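WARN  no MSA supplied for this record, continuing single-sequence
INFO  ligand: nicotinamide-adenine-dinucleotide
INFO  echoing inputs
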Amino acid sequence: MKVAVIGTGYVGITTGVTLAYVGHHVTCVDVNPAKLASLKAGKAPIYEPGLEELLSLAAERLAFTDSYAEAVPEADVIFIAVGTPPLPDGNPDLQYLQAAAAGIGEHIGEGFTVVVNKSTVPIGSGNWVDALIHEAFATRQGKLFQEHLAVASNPEFLREGSAIHDSLYPDRMVVGAEDQRALEVLYTLYRPILEQTFTPPSFIPRPEGLQAVPFIATDLTSAELIKYSANAFLALKISFINEIAALAERVGADVTQIAKGIGLDARIGTRFLQAGIGWGGSCFGKDTAALIATAQDYGLSMPIVAAAREVNYRQRERIVEKLLAELKILKGRTIGLLGLAFKPNTDDLRDAPALDIAHRLIERGVRVRVHDPVAMEKARREHPHLALHYCETPEEVAEEADALVLVTEWAMYRELPWEEMARRMRRAVLVDGRNFLDRAQMAALGFRYVGIGLNP
Ligand code: NAD
Ligand code: UGA
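INFO  complex generated
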């Protein structure tokens, strides 16, 4: 099939490249010239494992352009994957969605086209996009008949850092539409993934036992609400375990054992029960705020979701409190942060706890040294005013530091020469914000090891 993808961010480029890989012809549209230049040169504009390899494998079925006129008229399916960043009141900023819908309306062909909201968008956005497309079409050439267009919602559940894996092997595919034809077209489009008929790339093998992916067909509004509900639920699972972690510390228990002890109950599940610094990233914060804002529009409150947010953002301050408890005085100290990205295997810094913690420490007069294997250049570019001392190696971060905080659990941090790290530090205090390192080993190397929710 012929596919257009509007927006080549984390979601758009992953969607485009995986659909091309399984056999479709995909044209990706973006307004960012630097991204387009990079993609045209076969280079991934973001750090995402496997993306560049797949770009190369699918190259002959992929095109990149800034022109809606090139991508839209011929497309059978058009995905909207533009950003929906948060506004100060919690609602998402829909200006990019609006521009994308208008661009589609101006150029849509007169064959049957399915326009798919893949961006995470508020309830009612499907209807709004439909209206915007009709409006933009009308200014060009009169009435666009309903038989030519169907709008669907196909929320995206990929995780950054494993985006390609999650797109080729999703747990489920949710598609919401009022028009049965849209469901049929999208089933056909996704058939290779739903029925797992494609040959897996050698570097991202198919999970053992996966034969078919459930296709969940819903109405438009339910699909929109499924996305927000999924993210809110995952977010509150993490906040729940972080709340338990605080109590575990006080009573002398170990939250990692508690997570296992409750998680092996199949009704609870072990995943997303890792206590730590809490969630960051572009979506949990934004989507929980948007869910609460939507509820308010309908005269409802969402106390559970609101509490999950409160617990999450308090967790960052708790890191500062732990440092204060160890060092007694923060002003004038040097503290090293290992990891800037909001999670490993990505360079994404949106709502990254490391930046927030760095900011809090700098405000208290701390000199902050940082290292991240991939996100430092982006941090310099996107946060030029944050007074961080960037270090090329983790060893350099340790130099004369009064404490280290492990913020992002990059695999490489497990392999560091920790003995040497301790020697370089003024005080060998290690706050492991992800309970990632071997506590006994660190203690044996002379570290004062402080985890999250562990028996002190
Ligand atoms: P992003 O900011 O990385 O990318 C958005 C892209 O859209 C940018 O490249 C931008 O230049 C482009 N764009 C903006 N306006 C445009 C226009 N008018 N025409 C063409 N392109 C335009 O965003 P993202 O992280 O990929 O997220 C996109 C959407 O998907 C959001 O709604 C987000 O909530 C949702 N989502 C994101 C993730 C994730 O892990 N990042 C996962 C699931 C869902
Ligand atoms: C999350 C969801 O997992 C995806 O399903 C969803 O598509 C995406 O948001 C989105 O809508 O953008 P992502 O933010 O990429 O994906 O990464 P996650 O693996 O979910 O991690 C989110 C944050 O939670 C990270 O900061 C991570 O460190 C933290 N986390 C995760 C924990 O603190 N504990 C855990 O047990 C799991």
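The mean pLDDT is 97.
INFO  checksum written, moving to next record
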